[in-house]
Design brief:
It contains 17 helices and 17 strands. It is α+β, with helices and mostly antiparallel strands. The strands form five sheets. Strands 6, 7, 10 and 14 form a four-stranded mixed beta sheet that branches. Strands 9-8-11-13 form a four-stranded antiparallel beta sheet. Strand 1 and strand 2 form a beta hairpin. The radius of gyration is 28 Å and the shape is elongated.
């Protein structure tokens, strides 16, 4: 077991460096007192400020409570060696990671509290990660160092509730009365002034109507000066939509000095951060990630969107022809598949240990048309590594959405029936008909349900790969049974679409030679999946048909043989 060694660096800051190592080593981090001043959130700094506070009117108005400045949080840096260790940190509790030191990103290098001299990490490392965690945080088995032990009055559960009950301060903070809010604000401001940060002092007026300048409600139950909302939207260039739409589930984070807060956008794209950060200058951040997956940018790093430094909530519209549009669209598809409406289908790999990485990029791709995916065999077998290729900034967003769903369907398939999935990958790599036809069908189902709603057109059809910017209602049914158009037609078949819809390609297109005779209709996407996975699952196309016939009654089942035979 690794031993934890403590090295006292600066007694004036009561700062410790902790390093997980088997042998004594030089500390990876060197901290010096800033030219501006010392750490205003160290316990000695907060104790000094408390002595001034105790003579103030705000302290008296709050009832002259017994204050207890002590270590409530650690400001830390993690040094993960790879993305797997990064995931261990992300899944270890209430934590938000930042690639830059919090004080540097907020104050700038010239005003930062600390100076850093970090050892370089290996090429597989995502880099040093900074954050502030509660003292009770359970550190994972990843190298880390405590930069400073700090006290944050707005995060102090004792101050907020009168007890030291362990838990999240986020919800409890909403019960902080205005008098206590004003006292905590004066306490923090005094510590800033004592340490040379006078120009960052901000004063919010708070009243019994929920705060000065805010429209909150319910008197003292609303602790902060305003419940203001920001909003995130993204431009969808899909023909028939072509407008800004809300983006939900996006985690918006604010940082101020050594503290951070976060909130997820709702279905309409709105979010609010119930904290003093809203009414004081804060820095805004978005990382395109979730507990189960993360979007990797074209350059191999974490896909993110850096917001402004500002007072008040941040609203932002992601424009057309931007990489943020790529990342946001892939994020929306993954977020829906993991946590939203997935139509009763199996969930993709749930990331209990490691998150799925979805690499959205415009280089190292095998094709130069339309959004598509390239997955190496190793990636397919474990499905923690998905690469979605985008040709250019003007790619159709419905296709990028659909391709992301397609690859996550493979992930769900592998998770549910790994033996059947691997059999097709390893032993029939040139004829992965079940595997790809199922993913193709789920891609289509997700896309038409989303875009028929967005477009207001009940007949909107998923665009074909020949002309991805057309409005042709083809729904992947341009697939041919003789492979005269493409050999992929016999692998990426339209069988799932054919089982659901009532469109017979032979009749509608007057082509009995190269189109399936589709007289089957009325199966649901859930029934098709159940037939795919039941009784140990299938890896042969013919078994899919047999399971459908055995499990479900359907008035068109007499035509199943002919439909499936079309692809043999």
């Amino acid at each position: 077991m690794k031993q934890l060694k403590a090295i006292l660096i600066l007694p004036l800051l009561t700062m410790f460096i902790f390093s997980c190592s088997e042998e004594p080593e030089e500390p990876l981090l060197i901290n010096k007192i800033s030219q501006v001043g010392a750490n205003p959130f160290s316990v000695p700094s907060m104790q000094k400020a408390m002595r001034v506070l105790e003579g103030s009117s705000h302290y008296a108005a709050a009832g002259s409570p017994t204050l207890n400045p002590r270590v409530t949080h650690y400001y830390v840096v993690f040094s993960p060696q790879n993305n797997e260790e990064l995931d261990l940190i992300a899944k270890s509790g209430e934590v938000e990671l930042f690639e830059e030191p919090l004080d540097v990103s907020f104050l700038g290098e010239d005003r930062a509290i600390f100076e850093y001299n970090l050892a370089s990490l290996g090429q597989d490392s995502p880099g040093h990660q900074f954050t502030t965690v509660r003292k009770e945080f359970n550190f994972p088995n990843v190298d880390y160092q405590i930069i400073a032990e700090i006290y944050l009055p707005f995060e102090d559960l004792h101050l907020l509730t009168g007890t030291d009950t362990r838990g999240s301060a986020a919800g409890m903070a909403n019960m902080l009365p205005c008098d206590q809010y004003m006292m905590a604000q004066e306490w923090e401001n005094q510590a800033l002034m004592d340490n040379g940060y006078e120009d960052f002092i901000e004063v919010d007026e708070c009243d019994d109507q929920g705060g000065g300048g805010g429209s909150g409600g319910g008197g003292s139950s609303n602790p902060y000066p305003a419940n203001q909302w920001g909003r995130m939207r993204i431009y969808d260039n899909t023909p028939g939509v072509q407008r800004l739409i809300p983006i939900s589930g996006v985690r918006v984070t604010t940082t101020r000095f050594l503290s951070w807060k976060r909130s997820d956008t709702n279905a309409e794209g709105y979010y609010k951060v119930n904290s003093p950060h809203h009414e004081k200058k804060s820095q805004y951040h978005i990382k395109w990630e979730d507990d189960d997956f993360r979007i990797i940018a074209h350059d191999g790093g974490q896909a993110k969107l850096e917001g402004p430094d500002q007072t008040g909530p941040w609203s932002f519209d992601i424009g057309d022809n931007t990489k943020a549009q790529w990342y946001g669209t892939a994020f929306s598809a993954a977020k829906q598949y993991y946590d939203g409406e997935r139509y009763g289908l199996a969930k993709p790999q749930n990331g209990n240990l490691f998150r799925t990485t979805i690499k959205v990029r415009d280089n190292d791709c095998t094709s130069r048309y339309a959004p598509h995916a390239d997955i190496p065999v190793v990636g397919a077998l474990f499905f923690n590594d998905i690469k979605v290729c985008v040709v250019d900034y003007k790619s159709n967003m419905s296709r990028l959405y659909g391709v992301t769903v397609h690859e996550l369907t493979h992930s769900a398939h592998f998770k549910t029936r790994p033996g059947n999935f691997s059999e097709e990958i390893l032993f029939r790599p040139g004829n992965r008909r079940v595997l790809e036809s199922w993913a193709e069908g789920v891609e289509w189902w997700f896309a038409i349900n989303k875009y028929r709603t967005l477009s207001g057109n009940p007949n909107w059809g998923y665009n074909n790969s020949i002309n991805p910017n057309s409005l042709l209602i083809t729904n992947y049914q341009e697939r041919r049974t003789d492979a005269s158009r493409s050999e992929n037609d016999l692998i990426y078949t339209s069988i799932v679409v054919d089982l659901i819809d009532n469109f017979n390609q032979q009749v509608e297109w007057n082509d009995s030679q190269n189109r399936p005779n589709d007289q089957v209709s009325g199966y649901t996407i859930q029934q098709i999946e159940e037939a795919l996975y039941t009784d140990g699952g299938i890896s042969l196309f013919s078994n899919w048909e047999n399971h459908l016939r055995i499990l479900f009654e359907n008035p068109t089942e007499g035509f199943l043989d002919e439909l499936f035979d079309s692809w043999n």
